Automatic annotation (TrEMBL):
Keywords carried by this UniProt record: Membrane, Transmembrane, Transmembrane helix
Protein name as annotated: Uncharacterized protein
Organism: Paenibacillus larvae subsp. larvae
Segments passing through the bilayer: 12-31, 43-65, 77-98
Highest rank taxon of the organism: Bacteria
Transmembrane helix as UniProt keyword: yes
Amino acid sequence: MNETAKKLPFSYFFIFLTITTALEVLAFFLGMKPGTEEISGLIIFNSILGLSAILGFFSLMFGIVTSLRNKKISTAIFVVATVPLVYSLVFKLMMGIYR
């Protein structure tokens, strides 16, 4: 039996990464908006950011598995570089806004 493995679509990685980035930005906006008490803002920020981190790890693993399943090692390196870069850019941007 010669079965060919189906290639996984790489667009799901970008969908997960977009959702993760949107949750991270939402955590910053909801947690640090003016008029929010300090402790409630911290709770909201930490809970949404924790969910964003879990989804970020999931998108990282999904991107690596998709790349290796499709036998494209160069895209696996791209995935490993993209996810932390997106996180660090959003953190830097949001911390610059709220200073």
